[in-house]
């Protein structure tokens, strides 16, 4: 508008600047003008794909959720072994641009598709637990833990594997594909959204995809509004219920939970609050909880996997996150984000946990 750019938003100069944008959404809430740089980056990428075509690595990312649903299950052990091999990582770097020093996330042999029945008295309080790609196809144990936690708190849990939230496509500018595929996912969720049943999402980047991105892309404005108000990030929803006294965890042990370090996800910090995760952990018997004063972990979805970003990804993690973890080798590290947990494993050699795992052990 001001004529300061020698080319339009699809130009190489703009793309070069946005290449280092982590799509953390901090600009949207911290900038006085509320400039949504993550959304701008997505729009710019879509514009450039329209003009220049989509590279193979980008196509791989766009298909990743669909591929995950095919590979999770009986094929997982074989696929995981191949992914860990040096020849595969070399080829993937040459073909798709993923740094060979990274190993892609392992697939689970037991995809998360349903809550396992446990002996609890029914309360009539119904919730839907959305089986996002990361939980369904990779960290399925977290889905089962979350379902058990909710059941033991008195909720009637229905697990819904409705498809992908479209986070990979949205973050990488495959916006038209995101609308096409995401519309089908939301249609599958429509019955619960219209009935007012809370749809709970474990992964923060998936929750933000629904409420902050896909809702603004859908042509059906009425359904989009139901998506914004009916989908909830699990940490925020349950912490709110805990503060209001609607739930009282029936702890089965009073063994002290001990020292817990929390690293919040970027989208959680921007759209909700890391205080929610801290609140949930502080409710545990004898828990001493500290939030690490860190920014982004540096992984940022696929950003840290890309060859040109690997070293920068490490430097971002070293700014605050990794030193804090190394300083307390005996502490339990908790991170709600899938990418954050993998970054911590790669560079700190520590297995970060999700708070639902910790709660599950106490209920």
Explain what this protein looks like in three dimensions:
This protein has 363 residues and is of the alpha/beta class. The protein folds into three domains: 12-52, no CATH class; 125-239, Rossmann fold; 251-362, 3-Layer(aba) Sandwich (Rossmann fold), CATH 3.40.50. Helix content is 53%, strand content 9%. It contains 19 helices and seven strands. It has helices spanning 12-18, 26-30, 37-52, 56-71, 76-84, 86-96, 133-137, 140-152, 167-171, 175-195, 204-217, 221-230, 234-243, 266-271, 274-282, 310-319, 321-327, 338-348, 355-362, and strands at 125-130, 155-160, 199-201, 231-233, 258-262, 287-291, 332-334. A four-stranded parallel β-sheet has the order 2-1-3-4, with helices on both faces. 44% of the residues are buried. The model has no long low-confidence stretch (mean pLDDT 94).
Q: Could you say which structural class the secondary elements and strand pairing correspond to?
A: alpha/beta
Strand share of the residues? 5-15%
Q: How many structurally independent domains? A: 3
| Total of helices | 19
Overall strand count: 7
Q: What's the CATH class of the largest domain, please?
A: Alpha Beta
Low-confidence stretches: none
**Shape, please?**
globular
- Nearest-integer average pLDDT: 94
- Could you spell the SSE succession in H and E letters? HHHHHHEHHEHHEHHEHEHHEHHEHH
What's the arrangement of strands in the largest beta sheet? 2-1-3-4
Summarize the main sheet: 4 strands, parallel
Radius of gyration: 20 Å
CATH-derived architecture of the largest domain: 3-Layer(aba) Sandwich
Amino-to-carboxy terminus distance: 57 Å
Helix content: 40-55%
